[in-house]
Protein backbone atom coordinates (compact mmCIF):
# COMPACT_ATOMS: atom_id res chain seq x y z
CA UNK A 1 0.00 0.00 0.00
CA UNK A 2 1.33 3.47 -0.88
CA UNK A 3 2.25 5.81 1.95
CA UNK A 4 -0.45 8.29 0.90
CA UNK A 5 -3.15 5.59 1.13
CA UNK A 6 -1.73 4.38 4.46
CA UNK A 7 -1.87 7.89 5.97
CA UNK A 8 -5.39 8.37 4.60
CA UNK A 9 -6.58 5.01 5.95
CA UNK A 10 -5.02 5.38 9.40
CA UNK A 11 -6.14 9.00 9.89
CA UNK A 12 -9.70 8.22 8.71
CA UNK A 13 -10.04 5.16 10.94
CA UNK A 14 -8.60 7.03 13.91
CA UNK A 15 -10.94 10.02 13.50
CA UNK A 16 -13.94 7.74 12.89
CA UNK A 17 -13.23 5.71 16.04
CA UNK A 18 -12.75 8.91 18.08
CA UNK A 19 -16.03 10.32 16.73
CA UNK A 20 -17.98 7.13 17.49
CA UNK A 21 -16.48 6.85 21.00
CA UNK A 22 -17.33 10.49 21.69
CA UNK A 23 -20.95 10.04 20.54
CA UNK A 24 -21.30 6.82 22.57
CA UNK A 25 -20.02 8.67 25.62
CA UNK A 26 -22.51 11.53 25.07
CA UNK A 27 -25.40 9.08 24.64
CA UNK A 28 -24.43 7.02 27.69
CA UNK A 29 -24.11 10.04 29.97
CA UNK A 30 -27.35 11.63 28.71
CA UNK A 31 -29.39 8.40 28.97
CA UNK A 32 -28.11 7.67 32.48
CA UNK A 33 -28.93 11.19 33.63
CA UNK A 34 -32.42 11.03 32.07
CA UNK A 35 -33.30 7.63 33.56
CA UNK A 36 -31.95 8.59 36.99
CA UNK A 37 -34.02 11.78 36.84
CA UNK A 38 -37.15 9.78 35.97
CA UNK A 39 -36.40 7.34 38.79
CA UNK A 40 -35.99 10.20 41.27
CA UNK A 41 -39.27 11.74 40.12
CA UNK A 42 -41.03 8.37 40.52
CA UNK A 43 -39.57 8.02 44.03
CA UNK A 44 -40.79 11.49 44.94
CA UNK A 45 -44.24 10.73 43.54
CA UNK A 46 -44.44 7.44 45.46
CA UNK A 47 -43.52 9.18 48.71
CA UNK A 48 -46.10 11.89 48.10
CA UNK A 49 -48.81 9.33 47.23
CA UNK A 50 -48.06 7.28 50.36
CA UNK A 51 -48.32 10.39 52.54
CA UNK A 52 -51.57 11.52 50.87
CA UNK A 53 -53.13 8.06 51.19
CA UNK A 54 -52.38 7.99 54.92
CA UNK A 55 -53.89 11.43 55.36
CA UNK A 56 -57.00 10.31 53.51
CA UNK A 57 -57.44 7.68 56.26
CA UNK A 58 -60.65 5.76 56.41
CA UNK A 59 -62.61 8.36 54.45
CA UNK A 60 -62.21 6.26 51.26
CA UNK A 61 -61.68 2.62 50.40
CA UNK A 62 -58.22 1.38 49.43
CA UNK A 63 -59.35 0.78 45.88
CA UNK A 64 -60.63 4.33 45.62
CA UNK A 65 -57.34 5.65 46.95
CA UNK A 66 -55.36 3.59 44.47
CA UNK A 67 -57.51 4.79 41.57
CA UNK A 68 -57.15 8.35 42.72
CA UNK A 69 -53.34 8.25 42.63
CA UNK A 70 -52.58 5.76 39.85
CA UNK A 71 -50.24 7.36 37.24
CA UNK A 72 -51.44 8.00 33.70
CA UNK A 73 -49.19 5.24 32.35
CA UNK A 74 -48.38 2.77 35.11
CA UNK A 75 -49.63 0.93 38.14
CA UNK A 76 -50.16 1.54 41.86
CA UNK A 77 -50.27 -1.31 44.35
CA UNK A 78 -50.50 -1.91 48.12
CA UNK A 79 -48.69 -5.06 49.21
CA UNK A 80 -48.48 -6.83 52.57
CA UNK A 81 -45.36 -8.78 53.68
CA UNK A 82 -47.11 -12.07 52.88
CA UNK A 83 -47.84 -10.91 49.28
CA UNK A 84 -51.54 -10.23 49.96
CA UNK A 85 -53.27 -6.94 49.33
CA UNK A 86 -55.93 -5.33 47.21
CA UNK A 87 -55.71 -5.77 43.45
CA UNK A 88 -53.37 -3.24 41.83
CA UNK A 89 -54.84 -0.38 39.87
CA UNK A 90 -53.34 -0.11 36.40
CA UNK A 91 -53.74 2.45 33.62
CA UNK A 92 -55.09 1.37 30.26
CA UNK A 93 -51.64 1.25 28.63
CA UNK A 94 -49.92 -0.62 31.48
CA UNK A 95 -51.79 -3.93 31.60
CA UNK A 96 -48.66 -6.03 31.05
CA UNK A 97 -47.03 -4.85 34.30
CA UNK A 98 -50.04 -6.07 36.32
CA UNK A 99 -48.98 -9.59 35.40
CA UNK A 100 -45.58 -9.21 37.07
CA UNK A 101 -45.18 -11.24 40.25
CA UNK A 102 -45.48 -8.92 43.26
CA UNK A 103 -42.47 -8.84 45.59
CA UNK A 104 -42.49 -7.27 49.05
CA UNK A 105 -39.48 -5.09 49.98
CA UNK A 106 -38.71 -4.32 53.60
CA UNK A 107 -36.74 -1.21 52.61
CA UNK A 108 -37.20 1.50 50.03
CA UNK A 109 -36.52 0.22 46.54
CA UNK A 110 -36.12 2.15 43.27
CA UNK A 111 -35.08 0.52 39.96
CA UNK A 112 -35.69 0.29 36.22
CA UNK A 113 -37.63 -2.83 35.20
CA UNK A 114 -38.67 -4.30 31.84
CA UNK A 115 -42.10 -5.60 31.00
CA UNK A 116 -43.58 -6.40 27.59
CA UNK A 117 -40.57 -4.86 25.88
CA UNK A 118 -41.04 -1.53 27.66
CA UNK A 119 -39.10 0.18 30.44
CA UNK A 120 -40.68 1.23 33.73
CA UNK A 121 -39.55 3.06 36.83
CA UNK A 122 -40.44 0.92 39.85
CA UNK A 123 -40.49 2.39 43.39
CA UNK A 124 -41.48 0.53 46.58
CA UNK A 125 -41.85 2.44 49.88
CA UNK A 126 -42.72 0.71 53.18
CA UNK A 127 -45.40 2.64 55.13
CA UNK A 128 -47.32 2.01 58.39
CA UNK A 129 -50.96 1.70 57.34
CA UNK A 130 -53.98 2.83 59.37
CA UNK A 131 -54.37 -0.61 60.98
CA UNK A 132 -50.76 -0.59 62.23
CA UNK A 133 -49.45 -3.08 59.66
CA UNK A 134 -46.47 -2.28 57.45
CA UNK A 135 -47.38 -2.26 53.76
CA UNK A 136 -45.50 -1.44 50.54
CA UNK A 137 -46.76 1.38 48.39
CA UNK A 138 -45.44 0.29 45.01
CA UNK A 139 -45.53 2.74 42.10
CA UNK A 140 -44.69 1.63 38.58
CA UNK A 141 -44.63 4.35 35.91
CA UNK A 142 -43.81 4.12 32.22
CA UNK A 143 -40.52 5.50 30.82
CA UNK A 144 -41.82 5.44 27.27
CA UNK A 145 -41.40 9.19 26.73
CA UNK A 146 -37.81 9.04 27.99
CA UNK A 147 -36.95 6.01 25.83
CA UNK A 148 -38.52 7.78 22.82
CA UNK A 149 -36.28 10.79 23.52
CA UNK A 150 -33.25 8.52 23.80
CA UNK A 151 -34.19 6.80 20.55
CA UNK A 152 -34.34 10.18 18.78
CA UNK A 153 -30.97 11.06 20.33
CA UNK A 154 -29.46 7.82 18.98
CA UNK A 155 -30.72 8.62 15.48
CA UNK A 156 -29.42 12.19 15.67
CA UNK A 157 -25.96 11.06 16.86
CA UNK A 158 -25.79 8.30 14.23
CA UNK A 159 -26.79 10.78 11.51
CA UNK A 160 -24.29 13.33 12.77
CA UNK A 161 -21.57 10.65 12.76
CA UNK A 162 -22.29 9.74 9.17
CA UNK A 163 -22.54 13.41 8.16
CA UNK A 164 -19.13 14.17 9.71
CA UNK A 165 -17.45 11.03 8.34
CA UNK A 166 -17.91 12.06 4.69
CA UNK A 167 -16.01 15.40 4.93
CA UNK A 168 -13.60 13.64 7.28
CA UNK A 169 -12.70 11.11 4.58
CA UNK A 170 -12.31 13.89 2.02
CA UNK A 171 -10.17 16.03 4.33
CA UNK A 172 -8.01 12.97 5.18
CA UNK A 173 -7.42 12.44 1.48
CA UNK A 174 -6.53 16.11 1.04
CA UNK A 175 -4.24 16.11 4.11
CA UNK A 176 -2.36 13.00 3.00
CA UNK A 177 -1.92 14.62 -0.42
CA UNK A 178 -0.48 17.79 1.14
CA UNK A 179 1.91 15.76 3.30
CA UNK A 180 3.05 13.59 0.44
CA UNK A 181 3.42 16.39 -2.14
CA UNK A 182 7.05 17.31 -1.20
CA UNK A 183 7.97 13.62 -1.03
CA UNK A 184 6.40 12.97 -4.43
CA UNK A 185 8.24 16.04 -5.77
CA UNK A 186 11.49 14.79 -4.24
CA UNK A 187 10.99 11.31 -5.72
CA UNK A 188 10.32 12.81 -9.16
CA UNK A 189 13.47 14.96 -8.85
CA UNK A 190 15.58 11.92 -7.90
CA UNK A 191 14.15 9.96 -10.84
CA UNK A 192 14.95 12.93 -13.12
CA UNK A 193 18.54 13.01 -11.74
CA UNK A 194 18.90 9.28 -12.40
CA UNK A 195 17.42 9.62 -15.89
CA UNK A 196 19.32 12.72 -17.04
CA UNK A 197 22.55 12.37 -15.03
CA UNK A 198 22.21 16.07 -14.11
CA UNK A 199 22.11 17.42 -10.55
CA UNK A 200 18.77 19.09 -9.83
CA UNK A 201 17.30 20.73 -6.74
CA UNK A 202 13.82 21.06 -5.29
CA UNK A 203 11.91 24.35 -5.53
CA UNK A 204 11.09 25.35 -1.95
CA UNK A 205 9.01 28.04 -0.27
CA UNK A 206 11.66 29.94 1.64
CA UNK A 207 9.02 31.54 3.90
CA UNK A 208 7.88 28.16 5.25
CA UNK A 209 9.58 26.65 8.30
CA UNK A 210 7.86 23.26 8.53
CA UNK A 211 9.64 19.91 8.69
CA UNK A 212 8.91 19.04 5.06
CA UNK A 213 10.57 22.23 3.81
CA UNK A 214 13.49 21.52 6.15
CA UNK A 215 13.72 18.04 4.62
CA UNK A 216 13.74 19.64 1.16
CA UNK A 217 16.56 22.00 2.19
CA UNK A 218 18.56 19.04 3.50
CA UNK A 219 17.95 17.24 0.21
CA UNK A 220 19.18 20.29 -1.77
CA UNK A 221 22.26 20.57 0.47
CA UNK A 222 22.98 16.87 -0.07
CA UNK A 223 22.62 17.28 -3.84
CA UNK A 224 24.96 20.30 -3.64
CA UNK A 225 27.55 18.25 -1.73
CA UNK A 226 27.28 15.39 -4.24
CA UNK A 227 27.62 17.86 -7.11
CA UNK A 228 30.75 19.47 -5.61
CA UNK A 229 32.30 16.08 -4.92
CA UNK A 230 31.48 14.94 -8.46
CA UNK A 231 33.02 18.10 -9.93
CA UNK A 232 36.15 17.64 -7.78
CA UNK A 233 36.41 14.03 -8.90
CA UNK A 234 36.02 15.02 -12.54
CA UNK A 235 38.58 17.80 -12.08
CA UNK A 236 41.01 15.40 -10.40
CA UNK A 237 40.73 12.83 -13.20
CA UNK A 238 41.05 15.54 -15.87
CA UNK A 239 44.03 17.26 -14.18
CA UNK A 240 45.81 14.02 -13.36
CA UNK A 241 45.43 12.60 -16.86
CA UNK A 242 46.60 15.89 -18.39
CA UNK A 243 49.42 16.93 -16.06
CA UNK A 244 50.93 13.50 -15.41
CA UNK A 245 51.31 12.91 -19.14
CA UNK A 246 54.36 15.24 -19.44
CA UNK A 247 56.50 13.74 -16.63
CA UNK A 248 55.55 10.22 -17.75
CA UNK A 249 56.65 11.09 -21.28
CA UNK A 250 59.96 12.47 -19.97
CA UNK A 251 60.53 9.34 -17.87
CA UNK A 252 59.66 7.09 -20.82
CA UNK A 253 61.97 9.03 -23.14
CA UNK A 254 64.94 8.86 -20.77
CA UNK A 255 64.25 5.18 -20.04
CA UNK A 256 64.25 4.46 -23.79
CA UNK A 257 67.45 6.46 -24.14
CA UNK A 258 69.06 4.46 -21.35
CA UNK A 259 67.91 1.24 -22.95
CA UNK A 260 69.36 2.14 -26.35
CA UNK A 261 72.54 4.04 -25.51
CA UNK A 262 73.04 3.97 -21.72
CA UNK A 263 75.58 1.15 -21.68
CA UNK A 264 77.74 2.78 -24.38
CA UNK A 265 77.53 6.37 -23.11
CA UNK A 266 78.01 6.61 -19.35
CA UNK A 267 77.45 10.41 -19.40
CA UNK A 268 73.87 9.76 -20.55
CA UNK A 269 73.30 7.44 -17.63
CA UNK A 270 73.77 10.15 -14.98
CA UNK A 271 71.68 12.67 -16.93
CA UNK A 272 68.84 10.19 -17.47
CA UNK A 273 68.76 9.01 -13.86
CA UNK A 274 68.72 12.61 -12.63
CA UNK A 275 65.88 13.52 -15.01
CA UNK A 276 63.83 10.44 -14.09
CA UNK A 277 64.39 11.14 -10.36
CA UNK A 278 63.35 14.79 -10.75
CA UNK A 279 60.20 13.92 -12.70
CA UNK A 280 59.31 11.16 -10.23
CA UNK A 281 59.54 13.64 -7.32
CA UNK A 282 57.46 16.14 -9.25
CA UNK A 283 54.84 13.48 -9.99
CA UNK A 284 54.73 12.54 -6.32
CA UNK A 285 54.25 16.15 -5.19
CA UNK A 286 51.68 16.77 -7.89
CA UNK A 287 49.72 13.64 -6.96
CA UNK A 288 49.70 14.58 -3.27
CA UNK A 289 48.50 18.10 -4.09
CA UNK A 290 45.84 16.83 -6.48
CA UNK A 291 44.56 14.41 -3.84
CA UNK A 292 44.33 17.24 -1.31
CA UNK A 293 42.53 19.46 -3.80
CA UNK A 294 40.13 16.62 -4.61
CA UNK A 295 39.28 16.27 -0.94
CA UNK A 296 36.23 18.19 0.18
CA UNK A 297 36.94 20.76 2.96
CA UNK A 298 34.31 19.07 5.18
CA UNK A 299 36.49 15.93 5.10
CA UNK A 300 39.66 17.68 6.29
CA UNK A 301 38.84 17.03 9.97
CA UNK A 302 39.68 20.56 11.11
CA UNK A 303 40.55 21.20 14.75
CA UNK A 304 39.88 24.90 15.25
CA UNK A 305 41.37 26.36 18.42
CA UNK A 306 43.49 29.22 19.76
CA UNK A 307 46.96 28.97 18.21
CA UNK A 308 50.21 30.64 19.31
CA UNK A 309 51.03 32.23 15.93
CA UNK A 310 54.52 33.42 16.93
CA UNK A 311 55.54 29.92 18.02
CA UNK A 312 54.00 28.47 14.86
CA UNK A 313 55.98 30.88 12.63
CA UNK A 314 59.26 30.25 14.49
CA UNK A 315 58.94 26.46 14.39
CA UNK A 316 58.11 26.61 10.65
CA UNK A 317 61.13 28.87 10.01
CA UNK A 318 63.35 26.50 11.97
CA UNK A 319 62.13 23.52 9.93
CA UNK A 320 62.89 25.36 6.68
CA UNK A 321 66.33 26.35 7.94
CA UNK A 322 67.16 22.70 8.63
CA UNK A 323 65.65 21.43 5.37
CA UNK A 324 66.97 24.03 2.91
CA UNK A 325 69.63 25.97 4.80
CA UNK A 326 67.68 29.21 4.37
CA UNK A 327 67.41 31.47 7.37
CA UNK A 328 63.97 33.01 7.83
CA UNK A 329 63.56 35.98 10.16
CA UNK A 330 60.43 36.08 12.34
CA UNK A 331 59.29 39.50 13.62
CA UNK A 332 56.64 39.91 16.31
CA UNK A 333 55.96 42.29 19.19
CA UNK A 334 55.01 40.05 22.06
CA UNK A 335 52.78 36.95 22.01
CA UNK A 336 50.08 36.83 19.32
CA UNK A 337 47.33 34.24 19.23
CA UNK A 338 44.78 33.53 16.52
CA UNK A 339 41.84 31.14 16.03
CA UNK A 340 42.65 28.52 13.41
CA UNK A 341 43.57 24.90 12.70
CA UNK A 342 47.25 24.67 13.62
CA UNK A 343 48.19 21.88 11.19
CA UNK A 344 46.44 23.48 8.20
CA UNK A 345 47.83 26.94 9.01
CA UNK A 346 51.33 25.44 9.22
CA UNK A 347 50.76 23.83 5.81
CA UNK A 348 49.69 27.22 4.47
CA UNK A 349 52.89 28.81 5.83
CA UNK A 350 55.02 26.05 4.27
CA UNK A 351 53.49 26.66 0.82
CA UNK A 352 54.30 30.39 0.88
CA UNK A 353 57.75 29.88 2.47
CA UNK A 354 58.54 27.27 -0.18
CA UNK A 355 57.53 29.69 -2.93
CA UNK A 356 59.64 32.43 -1.32
CA UNK A 357 62.58 30.02 -1.15
CA UNK A 358 62.24 28.97 -4.79
CA UNK A 359 61.92 32.44 -6.29
CA UNK A 360 64.31 34.48 -4.13
CA UNK A 361 67.86 34.21 -2.94
CA UNK A 362 67.69 37.05 -0.46
CA UNK A 363 66.23 37.43 2.96
CA UNK A 364 62.80 35.99 3.81
CA UNK A 365 60.87 37.53 6.71
CA UNK A 366 57.69 36.51 8.49
CA UNK A 367 56.02 39.43 10.32
CA UNK A 368 53.15 38.98 12.77
CA UNK A 369 50.85 41.69 14.09
CA UNK A 370 47.51 42.07 15.85
CA UNK A 371 45.01 44.33 14.04
CA UNK A 372 41.70 44.54 15.89
CA UNK A 373 39.75 41.31 15.43
CA UNK A 374 42.35 40.01 12.96
CA UNK A 375 45.83 38.58 13.20
CA UNK A 376 48.12 39.13 10.22
CA UNK A 377 50.98 36.92 9.10
CA UNK A 378 53.05 38.54 6.32
CA UNK A 379 55.65 36.49 4.37
CA UNK A 380 58.01 38.75 2.42
CA UNK A 381 60.82 37.84 0.03
CA UNK A 382 63.21 39.91 -2.05
CA UNK A 383 62.87 37.70 -5.12
CA UNK A 384 61.99 38.10 -8.78
CA UNK A 385 58.42 39.24 -8.13
CA UNK A 386 55.29 38.93 -10.27
CA UNK A 387 53.94 41.41 -12.80
CA UNK A 388 50.58 43.17 -12.00
CA UNK A 389 48.76 41.53 -14.93
CA UNK A 390 49.74 38.02 -13.77
CA UNK A 391 49.12 38.57 -10.08
CA UNK A 392 45.30 37.88 -10.20
CA UNK A 393 45.92 34.51 -11.89
CA UNK A 394 48.48 33.01 -9.55
CA UNK A 395 45.85 31.21 -7.43
CA UNK A 396 44.39 29.46 -10.51
CA UNK A 397 45.09 25.77 -10.77
CA UNK A 398 48.14 24.86 -12.92
CA UNK A 399 48.90 28.52 -13.68
CA UNK A 400 52.61 29.17 -13.96
CA UNK A 401 54.05 32.67 -14.17
CA UNK A 402 57.01 31.46 -16.19
CA UNK A 403 56.64 27.91 -17.53
CA UNK A 404 60.34 27.28 -18.14
CA UNK A 405 61.47 28.88 -14.89
CA UNK A 406 58.83 27.05 -12.87
CA UNK A 407 59.80 23.68 -14.28
CA UNK A 408 63.44 24.46 -13.60
CA UNK A 409 62.72 25.27 -9.94
CA UNK A 410 60.15 22.50 -9.48
CA UNK A 411 56.41 22.82 -8.92
CA UNK A 412 53.30 22.03 -10.92
CA UNK A 413 51.30 25.20 -10.47
CA UNK A 414 49.15 23.66 -7.74
CA UNK A 415 50.73 25.11 -4.56
CA UNK A 416 48.90 28.46 -4.51
CA UNK A 417 45.65 26.84 -5.63
CA UNK A 418 45.95 24.43 -2.70
CA UNK A 419 46.76 27.39 -0.41
CA UNK A 420 43.52 29.10 -1.47
CA UNK A 421 41.55 25.91 -0.69
CA UNK A 422 43.17 25.57 2.73
CA UNK A 423 42.56 29.25 3.55
CA UNK A 424 38.87 28.90 2.65
CA UNK A 425 38.57 25.78 4.81
CA UNK A 426 40.03 27.41 7.94
CA UNK A 427 38.38 30.80 7.36
CA UNK A 428 41.62 32.67 6.59
CA UNK A 429 41.94 35.43 3.99
CA UNK A 430 44.83 35.70 1.54
CA UNK A 431 46.21 38.68 -0.32
CA UNK A 432 49.37 39.13 -2.36
CA UNK A 433 51.42 42.19 -3.34
CA UNK A 434 54.34 41.92 -5.71
CA UNK A 435 56.57 43.94 -7.99
CA UNK A 436 58.89 42.56 -10.65
CA UNK A 437 62.47 42.66 -9.40
CA UNK A 438 61.52 43.78 -5.87
CA UNK A 439 59.90 40.69 -4.36
CA UNK A 440 56.55 39.41 -3.16
CA UNK A 441 54.60 39.88 0.03
CA UNK A 442 51.79 37.47 1.03
CA UNK A 443 49.41 38.32 3.89
CA UNK A 444 47.41 35.67 5.77
CA UNK A 445 44.58 37.05 7.91
CA UNK A 446 43.08 34.85 10.61
CA UNK A 447 40.46 35.65 13.25
CA UNK A 448 41.67 36.58 16.73
CA UNK A 449 38.89 34.54 18.36
CA UNK A 450 36.14 32.13 17.42
CA UNK A 451 33.26 33.68 15.43
CA UNK A 452 31.03 30.62 15.56
CA UNK A 453 30.44 28.75 12.32
CA UNK A 454 33.05 29.19 9.56
Descriptive report:
With 454 residues, the protein is α+β, with helices and mostly antiparallel strands. It is 54% helix and 18% strand. The protein contains ten helices and twelve strands. The protein has helices at residues 3-56, 62-69, 144-196, 211-243, 245-261, 266-294, 309-324, 342-358, 403-409, 415-426; strands at residues 74-79, 89-90, 109-115, 118-128, 134-142, 304-308, 328-332, 337-341, 364-371, 374-381, 429-435, 439-447. Strands 2-1-5-4-3 form a five-stranded antiparallel sheet. The protein has a five-stranded mixed sheet with strand order 7-9-10-12-11, with helices on one face. The chain starts with a helix and ends in a 7-residue tail after the last strand. The relative contact order is 0.07. The mean pLDDT is 84.
Structural class: alpha+beta
Pattern of helices and strands: HHEEEEEHHHHEHEEHEEHHEE
In angstroms, what separates the terminal alpha carbons? Answer: 45 Å
Mean pLDDT: 84
Provide a short characterization of the protein structure.
By secondary structure, the protein is an alpha+beta fold. It is built from 10 helices and 12 strands.
Properties at a glance:
10 helices, five-stranded antiparallel beta sheet, single chain, rod-shaped, alpha+beta, 454 residues, five-stranded mixed beta sheet
Amino acid sequence: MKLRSTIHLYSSVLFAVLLIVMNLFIYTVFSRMSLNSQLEQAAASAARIAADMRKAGSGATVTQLLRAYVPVEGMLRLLAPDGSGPPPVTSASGQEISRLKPVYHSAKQAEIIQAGGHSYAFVSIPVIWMDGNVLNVQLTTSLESTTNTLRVLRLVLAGATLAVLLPLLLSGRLLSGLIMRPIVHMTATMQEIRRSGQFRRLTLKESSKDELVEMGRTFNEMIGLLERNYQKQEKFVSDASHELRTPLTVIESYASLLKRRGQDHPELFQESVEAIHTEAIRMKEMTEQLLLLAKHPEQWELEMKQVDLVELARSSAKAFDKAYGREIRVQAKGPIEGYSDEAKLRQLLFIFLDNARKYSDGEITVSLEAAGAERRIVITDQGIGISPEELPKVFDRFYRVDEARTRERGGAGLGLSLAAEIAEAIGAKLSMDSAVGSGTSVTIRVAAESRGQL
